[in-house]
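[09:14] KT: can someone run the structure on this one? pasting the chain below
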Amino acid sequence: MKKLFIIFAVLCLAAPAMAADWNFYGSARFATFWIDDDSDVAGEDSDSDLQWNQQGNSRIGANVKFNDEIGGRFEMSDNFGKRILYGTYNFGAGQLLIGQTYAPSAIFASNSVFDGDGDLLGIGEFYEGRLPMIQATFGGFQLALIKADVDGVGDQDLDVSLPKIEAAYTFKADMFKVTGFAGYHTYEVTQAGVDYDVDSYVAGIGAGMNFGPIFVNLGAHIGQNLGNYGAYQPYINQDAGFGATDTLDNDAFGWLAVVGFNVSEMITLEAGYGYTEAELDDSNNTQDAQQIYLNATINITKGFFIVPEIGMQTISEDASPEEPERFYVGAKWQINF
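[09:31] RB: done, structure tokens below
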């Protein structure tokens, strides 16, 4: 850690002397929430806790311009782990990116701040995170060849022969923006002497509309074996299964709706709902998760705002009568510098 600080300090001191423009930025984020978990199991009491902590997605980084063709960006988390690191080459007709950044499918239609700026990710909105890739951009079109992170279980042997392929196209107008995306990933698993092909895909769309002070964001996606594809899945399992001779595919979908109102330059109100569902082949057990929330972004001054939020998350499955619920109320505090 000390070496990392020394390297970072040297970069900061050397930046003015470098033949590049370094525009540094930072964001300190703090969560103050009261959380009540109801397990819905007979004889078990609900558990209430106070969350009072700096969020892990606090960050520091820089946008860098070397010349009209070459640029880049880096971003580190609150513990100085890598969030983003890439270089770009502008070749006139488009741009080539090499490094780690958000996948083309990242849309961020929600501003739910609970759970470290959860944004309904994995509970209505498809999300993969920041991944190593080679990406080409031509206007509103993006095509990325992404590192395929796959994990085996037990004695599984995994063979990956192709990167994950993902594309997205965004169309913008004065009052609305629409993004469509799709991706495909495949690899082979050998388990107990049997070979299985695990094919996964995703397709989705997101739309944002503005009607004066009112805004509406919508999104939906469908897919197969989204867990194997690399989707963020903190609430329900979306991985493929393995039968005696064949792969058992897991079919999933999700959707979300957000509506907001810009009361003034100081206050923005927002309400949202997200839902996700998955079911494995040869199974009658459908799993689902949902979240509803209401918040307000209160701008104290430029760069400093507070977002109080109240909401509830529910998880259920057909095979179990239990429906664990999480109720929360509190606020996120954020200073950008």
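[09:33] KT: thanks! The CA atoms of residues 73 and 179 lie 24 Å apart.
[09:34] RB: yep, looked fine to me
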